[in-house]
Amino acid sequence: MRKSIVLIFFIVASIILCGNAQEQSNIKNNQTKTWWKEAIVYQLYPRSFKDSDGDGVGDLKGIISKLDYLKSLGIDAVWLNPIFSSPNDDNGYDISDYRNIMKEFGSMKDFEELLAGLHKRKIKLVLDMVLNHSSDEHEWFKQAKSSRTNPYRNYYHWWPEEKGKPTPRYSFFDVNNDAWKYEAETKSYYLHYFSQKQPDLNWENEKLRNEVYDMMKFWLDKGIDGLRMDAFQYVSKDTTWKKYPDGYEKDIIKYYGMGPNLHNYLKEMNKSVISKYNVMTVAEGAGSTLEDAHSLVDEDRHELNMAYHFEIMDIGNDPKGYKLSDLKKAFTKWDYSFANKGWLAIFLGNHDVPRMVSKYGDDSQQFRAYSSKLLTTLIMTMRGTPFYFNGDELGMSNIKFNNIDDYRDIATVNGYKTAKAKREDLKAFLDKQKFISRDNTRTPLQWDASANAGFSTGKPWIKVNPNYKTVNVATEEKNPFSELSYFKKIVALRKSQPVFVYGDYKVYDIENQDVYCFTRVDGNDKVLVILNFTKKDLSYTIDKNINTVNAKLLINNYEGMNAIDNNTVKLKAWQSLAFKIHQP
Ligand code: GLC
Question: Burial letters for 359-393: b for 16+ Cβ neighbours within 10 Å, e otherwise?
Answer without folding.
Answer: bbbbbeeebbbbbbbbbbbbbbbbbbbbbbbbbbb
